[in-house]
Structures are given as structure tokens and as C-alpha cells.
Amino acid sequence: MSKTKQISLNAFDMNCVSHLSPGLWRYPGDCSLKYKDIEYWQNIARIAEQGLFDAVFIADVLGVYDVYRGNDLGALRAAQQLPINDPLSLATIGAAVTKNVGFGITAGVFFEHPYPFARRLSTLDHLTKGRIGWNIVTGYLPSANKNMGAKELPHDERYDVAEEYMEVIYKLLEGSWEDDAVILDRESGDFANPYKVHHIGHHGKYYDVPGIHLCEPSIQRTPVLFQAGNSPRGRAFSAKHAEAMFIAPPLQYAKTAVAQIRQELIKAGRDPYSAKIYLLATIITDESESLAQAKYKDLLKYAHKEGALVVNSGWLGVDLSKYKLDEPLDKIQSNAMLGKVEAMSNSTIDGQRAWTLGDLLKLSGIGAPQAPRIIGSPKQVADTLQDIIAQTDADGFNLSYATTPGTFEDVVRYVVPELQKRDAYKHEYAKGSLRNKLFGKGDRLDSTHIGSQYRVGGALSTIDDYTDTGRPRPAE
């Protein structure tokens, strides 16, 4: 890989107090406690756009991290992704003060029926002028299912449900309204030609959606599709649907993880580079290496140990309070985030031994423990970012923060200009929608993407306008 490959960056955030760095809300100058304020999110969006980031990527969970000790006390003490507010409104809040940066919003397929959710996606795409992305998740916290009154499904069956959910979404967003359905005939008063707005006629195992989509087509119709599953079943799902993939393996496993995704894309009949792959990373930087290292040591003083145990227990699906500090974490069986379990099981510390709870705690506190923390001067950070991209064949990074907005401001101030000097980072945004900015091929799903096949006349179109709909057929 060329050292001058252009690197993509996202700001990775969450609508809560503590995302991946529990306890850092106490750090002087950190603004995490303002997560409830419109002005806070508008500032994040402006910083991301100043840095020419692809998107502000908003994570989410609809549940509580209560695997640790079997209760929610630790999560509440550490404010570990709790309290947590809804992520979708952040896209319109940020779009109101920016023109180019995208907004990747996380939403789980189990927690909202696809019929109203399709309307929410179209609304967001209209209001952001085509800058919305959707991070498709199947969920991993048992507490979410309990509070929705739903049974916890086996890991792979969650993806079976997600497959049908996507089918309904594609039919509504791509196949219900034809491109020329809106006619705006001022003489007759007809807004739309009703015979170009189709009932999708979906009758499946999990969902029954016979009718039309409630919204006229937006710029992208289907938002840019993000996905973060890195289990074997998750990779297959991503390869079929995702246009951007977010993974968080240990650095020594990242090359393998990226190669697995590229191979899955080929197996799915897609170009292996038709999707962007972002690695998770946290950057601590300053004018010099000594200042960056001093900043990192200062940040560590505020890390919350129990919060780290809470979030890692939730990710791995096991109660880490039951492990001794020197006990290996290589035989975990769970129904949670199998990609993290697989990565943990297939990586080692110093190339010699399996991870222990003690190792996990040493690397927790700032960012995710298995993902790289890159600490140094702008030149050192830029060198490392380019090396990682060259070694792994990834496309860029989802940047988690130690402090907010401080970590993002530091990257924009110090690292982006250094990468631009090397022609390893863009100097301006491309025009158009988020999809066109990322791929330069227009606003709509590519014709090779499965979602495009649900358009009227497509191979997977199943419109049903006249059976049990009460619709008269058009006059000949």
C-alpha cells in the first residue's frame, strides 16, 4: 500500500456522559456533561467539519450495562453509557450549522418497526440534505430485550431478523415511490401520480408491511449504510449490505480482520473496495512528544476502573468480577459482541500469551482496550496512522475521544495539517451527498448493491398495488 493513500476520519461519539473513557468527564475542560445541550453537539459538528471528517459517528445502546456483578449499580456510578439520550436528533442539530460533514446514526433493528423507522430515515435525509448514514446494529445487551418485552435471540438469528428488516427498508425507500412520482401539476392540483407510488406487498416471517412508504424520495433515498459486526455472521451481513464498516480489533489482528471483510465482499459479489473500512483508535497529541505523553499521564489519573469493568463485561457478555487479575480471557463463551470475543481469543499480549483481566484493566480507561492509542507529536501520530493503513489495508479511523471536544480539537489542530502536508488527507470536501462524498459515484445506492434491486423493475421488486389494497387499476 502506498504511504500517500488518503486517510478518512470520523468523530466517534455517543449521546451520553461517558462513552469509551469512563471517568474522564471530570477532567478540567471536558464538556461531556453538556451532552444534553444543542450547543454542545453543534460545536462537535463544526469541529468535525473544520477537520474535514467524513462524519460524526454516533454510537448507541438501548439498554443498560448490567452484566458486571449482575446489576446496574456500576454503570450508574460510572455514568457508563448511562444516562443515554436518543441519537437520531443529533443529525439535524449538527446539520443546521454545517454544510458538508455527514452524520452516522446508530439504530437497532429490534427496537423500532421498519415501517415508522423508514419514515425517520427519509426525514433525516431530507433535513440534512443527503448527509445521513445509518449504522445498522442487532444489539448485544440482554437488558434491552427485557425492557422491550422481547426474548433474547441467539446471535446468528439476530442477523436473520436483520436481513428481513433490511428487505422491508429497501422496498420502502427504494421501491415504493418512482423517481417521477411527484409531478406538482399546478393546473390539476395533483401533487403526485398515485400510480407511481406503489404498495410494497411485503409478507415475511418477521414483518408484514403491505403498504406504501410515507415519504417522498429524499436525496439518497437509502442513507449510507454503516455496519459494525465483525463476527463471522456479522461479516457476511456487512458484506451484503454495508457501504462503510467499523471494526475495533487489536492492532495485531487488524490486518486479518480487514482481509476477512474484503474476502466477504468478494463472496457477496461485490468489489472488495466497494466499502470503506474504519478502525477504532484514540489519538493523544500535542506540539511535541513530551507534551503528548504528559497529557496522557494526566488523563489516566481520571480513569474510572469500575466503569472499565462495566463496559467490558457488557461487550464480552461475561461478568468480569468473577475473574482473577491473572486469569486468561481466551475461553469466553457468550451471546454478545462475538467479534470482540473472537478478536480477544485470537490475539496475544506481547505476542506470547493470552489476555488476562489485569491486561484488560491496564489498557482500559481511555478508549477501547484492544484498539490502538496513538500518543505523540503530530509527525509521530501521522507516521503511525499511515503505517497502520499501509499494514492493514483499512481506509481510515473512527476516532474515540479521551476528552470532548478536546481530543477532536487536538486532531484537527495538529494531525490533520500534518497529513495534508503529506497528501495523505483531503484538502476539501467533494460536492453532493454523504454517499457521493465518500465514493464519488452519485447520491444513490450503486446499481450493484442489493438495495438497488428493490426498485421498480428491479430483480427483487415485489410491489403489490391491487391485491387487497382497494386500489382500482388505472384506466387503459
Automatic annotation (TrEMBL):
Q: Which residues bind FMN?
A: 60, 106, 155, 159, 231
Domain of life from the UniProt record? Bacteria
MF terms from GO for this chain are:
monooxygenase activity; oxidoreductase activity, acting on paired donors, with incorporation or reduction of molecular oxygen
Q: Where is the Luciferase-like domain?
A: 36-387
**Keyword line:** Flavoprotein, FMN, Monooxygenase, Oxidoreductase
PANTHER family in alphabetical order: ALKANESULFONATE MONOOXYGENASE-RELATED, C2H2 FINGER DOMAIN TRANSCRIPTION FACTOR (EUROFUNG)-RELATED
Family label = Belongs to the NtaA/SnaA/DszA monooxygenase family.
Name this polypeptide is given: LLM class flavin-dependent oxidoreductase
Lineage of source species: Bacteria, Pseudomonadati, Campylobacterota, Epsilonproteobacteria, Campylobacterales
